[in-house]
Specification:
The complex is a heterotrimer of chains A (253), B (387) and C (253). Chain A is α/β, with parallel strands linked by helices and 253 residues long. Chain A has helices spanning 45-52, 75-81, 89-92, 98-108, 113-126, 142-154, 172-184, 196-202, 220-225, 227-232; strands at 6-14, 20-29, 34-38, 60-65, 68-69, 82-85, 160-164, 188-193, 205-210, 213-219. In chain A, helix 4 packs parallel to helix 6 (142-154) and helix 5 crosses helix 6 (142-154). The longest helix of chain A is centred in the middle third of the chain and has 14 residues, at 113-126. Chain B has 2 domains: 10-241 and 255-310, Arp2/3 complex 21 kDa subunit ARPC3 (Orthogonal Bundle), CATH 1.10.1760.20; 319-384. Chain B contains 12 helices and 4 strands. Chain B has a two-stranded antiparallel sheet with strand order 1-2. In chain B, strands 3-4 form a two-stranded antiparallel sheet. In chain B, a hairpin with a 2-residue loop joins strand 3 (232-235) and strand 4. Chain C has 2 domains: 16-138 and 227-252, no CATH class; 145-213, no CATH class. Helix content of chain C is 70%, strand content 3%. In chain C, helix 2 (22-38) runs antiparallel to helix 6 (103-129), helix 2 packs parallel to helix 10 and helix 5 runs antiparallel to helix 6. Chain C is flat, with a radius of gyration of 23 Å. Classes of the chains: A alpha/beta (253), B mainly alpha (387), C mainly alpha (253). Chains B and C meet through helix 1, helix 2, strand 1, helix 4 and helix 7 of B and helix 2, helix 3, helix 4, helix 5 and helix 6 of C.
Chain lengths: 253, 387, 253
């Protein structure tokens, strides 16, 4: 295997208001892997995500993306390589139209003209939102906005796609559509969630983040079947859901 | 409060526009400095890049909060102007930018406040409020003990002074470039009560709002920012201190207490002295009228699909009908006033033709009344206005 | 009718006025109101001509009269103010229907009402024929400082989001039986305002994160630029030029 897509070691961080969220996080994700990062609310998941492209720094520890350490000197390259889809699509879609929003990243990287248009069309095509190109994000449904948010990141052709709670607030149909889209993408994927069936459906491997440290790392089906572990970290399966009765997500590598 | 076109004459409007443009230019630079390194990470923001989204959101907040009604009683309600609040919460430069953008968009999108009066409106409502409120706030925070209550008290005084100060500037502009000869003394007596209430209301709301923010996120109140704690690592369930790699940012020079106190006293004296005359501002009148209208505005919010959009129309339940009606009334009054002036002046013009006095000629540059009388356009033609 | 993208004042249409590039319209309206304000108030016929000119534009833009009148509502507070002027102003007085009115005050009232009404009408015509997005592009094209345009864009994009949050807070308050009736309820309302500020500020931070995640470093990439031909400029400027002639006549006659 080549260099890992993502390596995190010894990461600790506290917010300026004094709240410490991470207490030494270590893990790595190989190229092409689909990994779920599980954890209850307040475990530090979002904080961790913000370290992956150097938005939060100033704590201790290191993050490396495809061999490149996250730090001031390579920030532009790091942010091109790590595509983060945030939890609230309203935060992510800040431009007046879908087209401009998807074009924002590539345009910031210097792309112009037909090349830019082509990139926008391709990214929107991959999430099935091509016909909504000139609509304002405001007018889309929540599921559509989430898909456009994924497109805004895909347009940058990232090395690793990081999704923060991708299934939150989606109705069952939008949820399945998004799963189909994510499965069809050929990128390294780190999915931060507490939606355990979704993790099982999409990710062969899972990490459990609890109290600011990685508490477990293994096959998603195995972790979900470990009742004691799940209970210890406030992770609960939906009523009637048995991870052993569901075929595990097919691995790719 | 939003002066329309024609309230202040063209040359003073232009001068105010130049002042506003210069102040906004200074604020653009200042805001980059203010927002540099103030994101939650404390390191990611290298300055500038945080300004646009943050100021944009704060502008949206100011816009929204101006629609939040504070009932005064007897069916009347007031709302926040927000100049002092913005300056205290996000810093004076960013505050000026936010309020200026709100005023600009209100003028362009909703025809609220004349385009030529934009300079006047920015000068009185964005710049003056920030220039008065922020030094007073900072000065008091420096002088008073470092507690939450002090922050609230400082906001109260700062906001209390910002409203009369804004009125003073408006009055000055009006005195220089006003289009009507209104006796300052007469208006002052009429307005003094109204203005005290407005300033007081603004002060109470601002203080309570700042107090609410300080209670939850003290780090978000600009100038009253918090302290950092040491990082710790969880090793086998035990918390141990992590090696410190960050240098704490200096919160600001602390050694200038003397300057602050001096500045504070000066501003207080100035503001106190000046606010005595402040109430001469014809504004207060309009505010009372506005507030009456705005009380009803809120009731419609629930069923409007976009609050940004319903800004233009609200006021009465059947907005369409009553809106059209009110528009007609507005135009009607304009026409009646025009006709009245025309009629009165012409009558006087013919009455006094002999002594050739110029009855309407109390401001320089006015044409003699005969000119108006000679105009061949019938006054009823003004009903074309807006058709 | 759509919100956000197409604000309420905007009326969709395909008239020649709609088709003009936004910055030409902005320049024309600004020039017009400057001319109107500079016109001597005694030249009453001039204001009638201005009103006629605006009526022509409204006709060309197919903006119905009722619509325009509705929007003039914004002026009502000043009508109240203007009505008082003849009573409080200084100078010679005349008796009308038993009331003693100041001549200067009458002129002042006329001046404020006439100029204010024309200003509002011109602004309403601009806003009703120009999309929000276009207005921002126009401001950008007129060389407003880019940071100011960015702030305005974000305000426009998130104005609805923030006001909507405020509305939800109000509904939550009222659902629990709270109704603000007097000064003693200000504390609760101010707490809402404080919470609204915190939410807005934090959203601002999240938007900023989403932006830097896609390579933002202080300046917006230019994705769209509006241009105007010489013909379009001359169409747009015909209005203020005609008004200027009227204004000159108003001074000389």
């Amino acid at each position: 295997m080549s260099t890992a897509s993502l390596e995190v070691s010894g990461l600790a961080f506290a917010y300026p208001d004094g709240h410490q969220a991470l207490f030494g996080v270590d893990f790595s994700v190989a190229r092409g892997e689909r990994v779920a990062l599980l954890g209850p609310n307040g475990a530090g998941k979002t904080t961790l995500v913000l370290h992956l492209n150097g938005i939060l720094t100033g704590g201790t520890g290191t993050v490396t993306v495809a061999g490149l350490p996250v730090g001031k000197q390579h920030m532009a390259e790091i942010r091109r390589r790590v595509g983060i889809v945030f939890q609230d699509p309203d935060d992510q879609l800040f431009m007046p139209t879908v087209r401009e929003d998807v074009a924002f990243g590539p345009a910031a990287a210097g792309l112009r003209g037909p090349e830019l248009e082509e990139r926008v069309d391709r990214a929107l095509g991959r999430v099935g939102m091509a016909e909504f190109k000139d609509r304002p994000p405001h007018h889309l449904s929540f599921g559509q906005r989430r898909r456009v948010a994924v497109a805004t990141v895909l347009a940058m052709e990232p090395e690793i796609l990081v999704l923060d709670e991708p299934s939150s607030n989606l109705d069952p149909a939008s949820r399945r559509e998004l799963a189909d889209i994510l499965r069809s993408l050929d990128v390294t994927l780190l999915m931060v969630t507490h939606d355990l069936p979704y993790a099982l459906e999409l990710c062969p491997r899972s990490l459990v983040l609890s109290d600011g440290v990685i508490a477990a790392d293994g096959g998603t089906a195995d972790l979900l079947a470990d009742d004691a572990l799940m209970r210890a970290h406030r992770l609960e399966l939906p009523y009637g859901f048995d991870p052993r009765s569901v075929p595990a997500a097919p691995g790719r590598s | 409060m939003h002066a329309p076109d024609g309230f202040i004459d063209a040359s003073v409007s232009a001068a105010a526009g130049a002042v506003a443009a210069a102040a906004v230019a200074v604020s653009l630079r200042g805001a980059r400095r203010e927002q540099g390194g103030t994101s939650r990470s404390g390191t990611a923001g290298s300055g500038g890049e945080l300004t646009a989204p943050l100021a944009g959101l704060v502008a949206a907040f100011i816009f929204a909060v101006q629609m939040l009604n504070f009932p005064v009683g007897a069916g009347t309600s007031g709302h926040l102007l927000g100049g002092a609040l913005a300056a205290i919460l996000v810093g004076p430069y960013t505050g000026v930018l936010c309020v200026s953008v709100v005023l600009l968009m209100q003028a362009v999108l909703f025809a609220d406040g004349g385009l030529t009066a934009l300079g006047v409106n920015i000068t009185t409502m964005a710049i003056t409020t920030a220039v008065v409120a922020y030094p007073v706030f900072r000065g008091l925070v420096k002088v008073l003990p470092r507690t939450r209550r002090s922050v609230t008290a400082a906001s109260f005084v700062a906001a209390l002074l910002s409203v009369p100060a804004s009125a003073v500037v408006f009055t000055l502009l009006y005195a220089v470039g006003g289009t009507t000869d209104v006796s300052i003394g007469k208006v002052a007596t009429a307005m003094v009560g109204v203005h005290l209430v407005i300033g007081l209301g603004e002060a109470v709301i601002t203080a309570l709002t700042v107090g609410a923010v300080v209670a939850v996120r003290p780090d978000l109140v600009y100038g009253a920012r918090g302290l950092r704690q040491k990082l710790r690592l969880r090793v086998d369930g035990e918390l141990v201190d992590a090696p410190d790699t960050t240098e704490p940012e200096p919160v600001g020079a602390r050694s200038r207490k003397g300057i602050w106190i001096g500045g504070l006293v000066t501003s207080l004296v100035l503001a106190g002295f000046v606010s005595f005359y402040a109430s001469a501002d014809p504004d207060g009148l309009e505010r009372v009228a506005t507030d009456h209208g705005i009380d009803e505005k809120a009731r419609e919010h629930a069923n409007a699909d976009s609050p940004l959009a319903d800004y233009g129309v609200e006021d009465v339940d059947d907005a369409r009908l009553s809106g059209g009606l009110a528009g007609v009334i507005g135009v009607g009054v304009t026409v009646v006033a025009g006709t009245g002036v025309f009629w009165v002046v012409r009558r006087r013009g013919t009455d006094r033709k002999a002594d050739a006095a110029a009855p309407g000629d109390t401001t320089p540059g006015n044409a003699p009344p005969g000119d108006a009388a000679r105009s061949d356009a019938s006054p009823s033609d003004t009903s074309d206005t807006g058709v | 009718m759509g919100a956000g993208h197409a604000h309420r004042l905007y009326r969709h249409g395909h008239s020649p006025v709609h088709a003009l590039p936004p910055h030409t319209k902005l320049a024309a309206v600004l020039a017009l109101v400057v001319v109107v304000v500079s016109t001597p108030r005694e030249a009453m016929w001039a204001f009638a001509v201005y009103a006629g000119l605006l009526a022509l534009v409204a006709y060309a833009a197919r903006v119905p009269a009722v619509f325009l009148l509705e929007r003039l509502l914004i002026e009502v507070p000043f009508v109240a103010f203007a009505v008082l002027l003849p009573f409080v102003a200084e100078g010679e007085r005349v008796g009308v229907l038993g009331l003693s009115l100041s001549v200067n005050g009458l002129w002042g009232a006329w001046n404020v009402l006439a100029k204010g009404t024309l200003g509002v009408a011109a602004s309403v015509l601009l806003a009703s024929t120009t999309e929000l997005r276009e207005l921002l592009l126009g401001l950008q094209r007129l060389r407003l400082p880019p940071l100011l345009v960015q702030i305005a864009s974000f305000m426009v994009r998130y104005g609805d989001v923030v006001t909507d949050e405020m509305r939800r807070m109000r509904i939550a308050r009222e659902s629990r039986g709270f109704e603000a009736r007097g000064v003693r309820h200000w504390g609760v309302l101010a707490k809402s305002a404080g919470a609204l500020f915190i939410r807005s500020y934090e959203r601002g931070e999240r938007v900023h994160l989403a932006m830097v995640s896609r390579g933002y470093s202080g300046s917006m990439p230019v994705i769209d630029e509006v241009t105007a031909s010489r013909t379009q400029w001359s169409y747009a400027l015909a209005l203020p030029c005609a008004a200027f002639v009227v204004c000159l006549l108003g001074w000389t006659l």
